[in-house]
Amino acid sequence: MKTTLRSAAFLESRAEDWAELETLVRKAETGGLKALSTAQLHRLPVLYRQLVASLSVARRTTMDQHTLKYLEGLAAEAYIAVHGSRSTRRGAFRRFLFERFPREVRAIAGEVGLATGFMALGVVVAIGLMNTDPGWYDAFVDPGLAAGRDPNANTDTLREALYGGGEMSEGGTLSVFAGFLFVHNARIGLTAFALGFAAGIPTALLMFSTGLMLGGFIHLYASRGLLFELGGWMLPHGIPEIGAVILCGAAGLHIGRQVLRPGRLTVRDAMVQAGRRGSIVATGSVALFAIAGVIEGVFRQVVTDDILRYGLAAFNGLWFAMVFTLLGRKRDDGQGRP
Amino acid sequence: MKRELIGPEGVALSFPLASRMSRAMAFFVDIGIIMATTGVLGLLALLATVGVQRLEPLAGTLVAGFVIRYAYFAYFEHRWHGSTPGKRLFRLKVVSRDGAPLDGDAIIARNMMRDVEFFLPLMLLAAPQVVSGSAPLWLAFPTLLWIVVMAAMPLLNRDRARAGDLLGNTLVIELPRAPAPTFDTARTRTGSPLFSKANLEIYGEHELEELARILRITKDSPADQQPLELIAKTIRNKVGYDGPELPPEEFLQAFYTAQRAHLEQKLLLGYRKADKHSA
Fold first, then answer.
1. B94, B120, B89: which is closest to B107 by C-alpha?
2. Which H helix or E strand runs over A20?
């Protein structure tokens, strides 16, 4: 008479496969999947799936907790090796920038409008207040940023500020300037996005205060009859730069809005969804900041001809509009996701 | 602490949640690497700038510093599948809470927040005027609140998630390690059955597991003396065993095998006996 444990027989018959899986997994953990041969690479998912299936059975049937713990641990290890990695298709960067980024921007078009609205409100408020008292300027524009361009400056100084800077082209100073502008602006943009986490309120404030600053400048230059010249100075880089700030703000507001009105989702799920979408928009905006930085740091300083400046502004406006209306319409990003 | 993820196979797997301490340590290692790299680059750029008498190298470092700071975590988490040099050192890994493979969106989302969670508060503390400009004083209070909430976030929820984890829907786990397997606890037994059906109706799975544990210790570390004799006697009396007298260890082994076979047989018919108290 022989007493045999069914569970033991079940486990024993698979022990060899598990040992094999264990060696593969440990190898992959130290050296990555590259450490495995082609044959081993084919074995890994097969063995993993067998183990997961056995684990489900063992959970219901085995009376041996020690073995169960081993299986649980091995399955977790193998999960990391099998699912923790993911192959990336070629051209991920290009697809991100020219397909997903515009698509996600279109998806949050409402928030883009909202962010633009907050900024426009800032501009209007600043102009309105400065109409009654130009002294408001100091409240809107940081003196450090204004660098002497304030209501007390005479018109020539203000004009000079729009066309000066050419002397900086010596010795590569402009490149530093461009680099600085890019880093500075991109950080503001990313902060605007991340602050959306606090129900979007800081983001809205940031949009508004940027609008105030813009309005302050516009009013100052308009009051001296330099509006056209200011346009030539500001628009070429302003289109990608202010556009990027608005997009980052919109991404932040999107999170805030989803948190406040999650609809049928839980707040957490809504936030996750908004966060992913928003971070794509914010990351894409960094590219816009880089373009703006080069234009602002180099082109603006070197080219002082109004017609050329407006020409570039028009060109920028054109591609900016085209990128966000036309690109990424074809729904294939290789991830099976619309 | 453990967290369960349901993998694509539909089976829940449990992972040890990374401790806050090891996460903080990993983070500081990564920050150290970032600072060292940026520092070395800056030094090289400075030398180059002096060498060529132009400022382009400096501009390059400025941008490179930005890129390194923002892309470091995302790059490594992408290439190393949820791990960075610091995380690797402490055997940590980022996984997606939904059990699916960690995707690029989640990585970007969780690392975007890092700046606001850590660097921004740090700068606010070190040099408030740089961040807030000439912002009024009343803004200081919400800012302070923000810092506190952000910093305390991983302490406030059971997943130890920081804001970035919340946004990216990710968990940071410790790499699981399976214990060494043992397949030798009294598998089969030949000979006539020692126990009657009535003998085996007393104990349940809990007692069986305890017995397995004691037998395993006896086998693995003989130095660690277990009161086998006492246990054998208790079991004998409890189940009403009236078979031949056996040495304690042999008796317990035999009882374990018989009891387990019995419980498994009953399980096959749909009856589960958790412990001696359950019917």
1. B94
2. helix A6-31
Q: What is the token pair recorded at B69?
A: 């700071």
**From CA B86, how far away is CA B26, in angstroms rounded?**
4
Tokens of B219: 């086998």
Q: Which of residues 227-256 of B touch A (CB under 8 A)?
A: none
**H helix or E strand, kind and range, residue B3:** strand B2-6
Q: Give, rounded to a whole angstrom, the gap between the first and last alpha carbons of chain A.
A: 64
A110-129 residues touching B, CB cutoff 8 A: none
A contacts of B99 (beta carbons < 8 Å)? 83
pLDDT at A338: 42
End-to-end CA distance of chain B: give it in Å, rounded.
32
The alpha carbon of residue A35 and the mean position of all alpha carbons in its chain are separated, in whole angstroms, by 34
Count helices and strands in chain A by DSSP H and E runs: 15, 1
pLDDT tens string A257-283: 888 888 888 888 888 888 888 888 988
Q: Which residues are CB-neighbours of B263 under 8 A, at least 6 positions away? A: A63, B200, B204, B205, B208, B273
Q: What SS3 class is residue B13?
A: strand
Per-residue buried b or exposed e for A267-278, using 16+ beta carbons within 10 Å of the residue's own CB: eeebbbbbbbbb
d(CA B244, CA B155): 60
**Which residue on chain B is closest to A7 by alpha carbon?**
B264
Across residues A110-124, what is the average pLDDT? 92
- Chain A window 294-333: which residues touch B at a Cβ cutoff of 8 Å? none
- Per-residue confidence at B84, pLDDT binned at 50, 70, 90? very high
CA distances from A9 to A6, A19, A140 (A): 5, 16, 79
Report the residue from A11, A77, A175 with minimal CB separation from B176.
Answer: A77
- The verdict on a CB contact (< 8 Å) between B168 and A272 is yes
> How many whole angstroms separate alpha carbon A188 and alpha carbon A145?
14
DSSP A128-146: HHHHH-GGGHHHHS-HHHH
Give the residue from A290, A253, A277 showing the smallest Cα distance to B109: A277
Residue from A172, A174, A171, A138 nearest A153 by CA: A138
Distance from CA of A260 to the nearest CA of B (A): 15
Residues 152-171 of B with CB under 8 A from A: 163, 166-169
Amino acid found at B178: A
A337 pLDDT more than 50: no
Residue % of chain A over a pLDDT of 90: 13
CA atoms within 13 A on the CB side of B95: 31
Angle at CA B130, nearest 5°, toward B129 and B132?
Answer: 60
Confidence of residue B133 (pLDDT cuts 50, 70, 90): low
User: Which residue of chain B is at minimal alpha-carbon distance from A270?
Assistant: B167
Question: Would you say B85 and B76 are in contact if contact means Cβ atoms under 8 Å apart?
Answer: yes
**Bridge partners, residue B174, by sequence:** B92
Is B179 at the interface with chain A, CB within 8 A? yes
Contacting residues of A for B93, CB less than 8 Å apart: 80, 84
| Cβ-Cβ contacts under 8 Å, A12 against chain B | 183, 187
Model confidence pTM above 0.80: no
Quote the DSSP letter at residue B94: E
